[in-house]
Amino acid sequence: MATGRRPQLAGLGLETIGLDPHARALAVDGQMRAAQGVWGVGDVTGRGLFTHVAMYQAEIAVRDIPGRPGPDADSQALPRVTFTDPEVGSVGLTEHAAREQGLRVRTGTARVPSSARGWIHKAGNQGLVKLVEDIDRGVLVGATSAGPAGGEVLYGLALAVQSEIPVERLRHMMFAYPTFHRTVEDALADLGHGD
User: Fold this and answer.
1) Taking 60 as the threshold, does the pLDDT of residue 4 lie above it?
2) Which of 47, 50, 69, 136 has the most crowded CB, counting CB atoms within 10 A?
């Protein structure tokens, strides 16, 4: 049973520097600054409670502390992976979240067992790839990859969401055969038949 988790800011002495020790999370800017001379990274920021988020944020803070310039943190394509069997990974917006933001979306889905690699894999091949496209911009705004190596398949999808690669360009990529990644190609084909 999962009960959730949240940062505990009380006891850190935040009130001595004008920050709220009872806040749900430490508010930080794009360079991970919470206050003058104070940076926050990881779960304490409440932004995607994953190790890879903390590592990403730490790189930004380590660069900013000595004053080296660099881009702000960007969570548009925040990858989320649950290492269950099968692995479940997602990036960007879910279909529901995209619709709540007022986006006109269509989805495409492909089942892993229907792919060549899924068929070769046999037992334990259950899973799917689901894509969420912003119809007006013609780019993916979210994706889910569940199945064997679901977290690994997520890499290309995260790149597509982060870089806003046009769906038409993704449709004309060459996908290595036989890989689990090829299921993405099938999901792209299904986008044309979405809602």
Assistant:
1) yes
2) 47
